[in-house]
Structure formats: structure tokens, C-alpha cells
Amino acid sequence: MNKFICNTCGVQTESAGTVPEHCWICTEERQYVNPKGQSWTTLEEMVASNTYSNEILSEEEGLSSITTVPSFGIGQTAYLVQGENFNILWDCISYLDTATIETVKELGGIDAIALSHPHYYSTQVEWAETFDAVIYIHEDDKQWVTRPSDRIIFWSGETLEVAEGFTLHRIGGHFKGAAILEWKDGSAGKGVLLTGDIVRVVADRQWVSFMYSYPNFIPLPAPTVERMAVQLNEIRFDRVYDAFHRIVMNEAREAVQNSAKRYVDALNGVLFKT
């Protein structure tokens, strides 16, 4: 029995005796099946290959990024946030080895894992079991869990305080249960949002964007982005970290609002004429 990992999205399945025919995540319109065909690996195969390692960097006091090198799957970055006697892993990556475990334990371990949306579920149960952590997923995305576990807590409503200083906000958009993490003490007490790609920092780091599907270029409707902007405006933050190690360093709350307006104006045909 193996727990297979999709090579395209990096999400792990529950134990199976044979290779699955399709990836439940990739066959949905927000993701894609590799043009070369569906392929799978396992965490054991990844470790044995000696191909991968995880780069763990200190981003600011209390925050470390974790990224697999070379890139695997979607290539997202996870973040370990250290609070007062409580550490939370924001989003997850597929690769986990002894070196990563040792470094994370040196940083205080993991008490909880919180996920922005299904594309980053990866090997979340492996991480949770390794560090004796619980997993927080919004109940609206329950159907996308490909490896069930008693460690998963399906939360409901619009906000959840996971621990002092850490609040999850369901803002939807990319997925119905799409969430972001508010870290109140981040950026020297001015507040940080960790957004996955629910709010994605673009090439010009003073702007962000919002999408239903990034690889397939499907935009979100204007009313959805307007609603998201209202919710985001109610949160105090000065900095944003997205899933691909892009950061709006300062005045991020204003940047998000400006970006939402620009996005809506573009969809409504008032931003430009071409």
C-alpha cells in the first residue's frame, strides 16, 4: 500500500494498492493534468532520489519560509510562524525529510497547520503526524481532502482564532473555503497577512491580484473581488506574504485595496481602452 503524490500538484492520496488513474485535484478546472499525462510518486521515492531538499529561511522575527529545491509540484512556499508558546505552519509542501524535521524542531516544532485552499494540501497529514499537530481546513473545502485524517479540524464561519495572535479568515474567491492567516504580531506589531494565492503578489510588488484559476487564466467576478476587498479592509496589516515568496513589505493594506479597485475597473472596462 502506498500514499501516492501527484507530480503536477503535489497533493498526496490516502493509501492505495494501485496507482490512481486520475488526480482529483488536477482534473478540476482550476488546475490541470500535465500534457504528458498523469504521473505519481511517493514521499519515500522523493527522499530516496536525493534530488530534493527544503530551503528554510528566516524572513523576519518569528517567521521562516520553507521551500522545496528544486521546485516540485506547484512550487509553493510554506511558512512557519512562531507565537507565544505556539507555532503554526501556514500552507504545506510535499517534501519532508530528516533535515527538515530537525530544523523545524529547533524552531520549536509545529502545533497546528492551517491551509489556504486544496492546492496546497500536499502531504499535510505526514507533517501533522510527524510534529503531532492538528490541521485546520474550512469546512467548505472538505470535499477536496484526498487523504482523510482524525487530525483535520473542519472549521466553519468567517473567522477562527486558532491561538492568541493568529486568526483565520475565510474570504473565498479562489475556492469557496479559501482562507488567509492574520498574524497580529508580525511586521513589528503592525500585522502580517499570509495569503497563499488567495491574494497573490504580482511582479510589481506594490500590487496584488485575485483569480479563480491561475494556470488557466480564469478571473474572478467583479462582485466577488469587491466583497473580498471589504473583508480585507477590516483587518489590520502592513505586510503580505504570498505562496510564491513574494512580499508586499509595507502599506500592504492600502496596496490590496488599490489592487482590488484596479481589478474591478479592468473587468468593468473602465481601466483602459484597447
TrEMBL record:
**SMART domains tied to this protein:** Lactamase_B (SM00849)
Task: Identify one Pfam family in the record.
Answer: Lactamase_B
Using the record's annotation, list all stretches that form the Metallo-beta-lactamase domain. Answer: 75-244
Q: What CDD domains does this protein map onto?
A: YmaE-like_MBL-fold
Q: Give the domain of life.
A: Bacteria
Question: What is the protein's given name?
Answer: Metallo-beta-lactamase superfamily protein
Q: Please name the source species.
A: Planococcus citreus
The upper taxonomy is: Bacteria, Bacillati, Bacillota, Bacilli, Bacillales
